[in-house]
Amino acid sequence: MNIVVILAALAAMRWNAPLLAFAASPESAPINTPDSARQSSAQARAGGRSSSEPTQSLDPILAEASSLAGKGMASEAERRVREYLAVHPDSADAHFLLGRILFREIQTGAMLEGQLALQAQAPMSSVKVLGADSSGAKDWDEKAKASLAEFTAGAKYHAPSAADLKVVAFDYVLLGDYLDADKWLTKMLQWAPNDSDGWYHLGRTKYSENRFAEGISAFQQCLKLDPKNVKAEDNLGLSFAGLGRNDEAAAAYQLAMAWQAQSPLKNPGPYIDMGSLLIDENRPQAALAFLLQATEIAPRDSRAHELLGKAYARLEELPKAQAELEKAIELSPQTPNLHCMLAPVYRKQGFAERAKIEFDRCASLGGSHSIPETPRP
Question: How far apart are the C-alpha atoms of 42 and 222, rounded to whole Å?
């Protein structure tokens, strides 16, 4: 059933509130941004909730529930907050806390980073990459909607904090609604402009909307606040590549690699993305060194093996291409384009039956559309 929840107008605080809609349509009413004086007045009456974290003390019961959630005991924390709300249904703090706890429960099953990257692979009009038939995806959808409903309920009593709006945005990311995720991250950053993580996720959301120039601005702001952030620099490169500015993309990837040269734990993203860029420029031999290093750093990264297989196929090193693509499929069996890529590799080697199986699998999973570059977690 489609659910539409309206964030009630905070009339008592003279604040023009937006709509929080999470129905099937990705569109929702625009934010009516108040002027700075009215916003300051509203935030002052809300206890200074423009900061990145709530400033007022929680009721001891809610504080204990928050502590339990922080220790990974989200289900018990949820139970206690619901019991509290049964007695205090008008507690904004309880509703906001429950919204955050429900989001934390989603994170146990699918971290936001990976989910955002997965969803960025699909067209903006699609619902979710994980698919409607996945019981896990349905459960996450319902929890994200329930989380949004709690923030909506709490906003009837006082304004949410910037931290609350950030979770609202992440709920929308998990629902595949980038337009609303963008809107709430933007609103949150008006209140907490020094939140580097907020800028990073806004950049990733902009990238998912194919708004690459705005993504570049967001990642650059993140890097101003958090210099040498490898993930931000890598995603900056992807945004440059999205605009066809390949030289700047390559420079960003190289810089991200240089920043972690001495680190024992490296992020494979810049190596993967540099390899992908070189393949796109028809330089598969040059791509090999970066992709081989990526598979050493993250041997279970399906994308690294996929691109390595693609590079070997371009170089007509078919047994190596086969091995890498088979590994990619082992790690990500439901990705259609992997089967579509492996089928001709089998066929060229004379493995007709194997090729047919992969072509059929490719068709059943949704065709031969290649997966575009994604923001890197």
Answer: 28
Average pLDDT over the chain, rounded to whole? 80
Question: Letter for the amino acid at 216?
Answer: I
- Give the 3-state secondary structure of residue 21: strand
Q: How far is CA 237 from CA 250, 263, 342, in A?
A: 7, 20, 28
- What are the domain boundaries of the chain? 1-22+53-188, 194-267, 274-377
Model confidence over 56-77: pLDDT tens digits? 578 999 999 999 999 989 999 9
Answer yes or no: same fold for 194-267 and 274-377.
yes
Q: What is the pLDDT of residue 56?
A: 58
What CATH topology corresponds to 274-377? 1.25.40
pLDDT beneath 50, residues of the chain: 1-55, 111, 115-116, 118-134, 368-375
Q: What Cα–Cα distance (Å) separates residue 3 from each residue in 145, 148, 206?
A: 8, 11, 25
User: 4 - beta bridge partners?
Assistant: 21
- Rounded Cα–Cα distance for residues 4 and 32 (Å): 19
Is 194-267 in CATH node 1.10.730.10?
A: no
Report the distance separating Cα 365 and Cα 338, nearest Å: 10
Helix axes 336-348, 318-331, angle to 10 degrees: 150
pTM of the model: 0.77
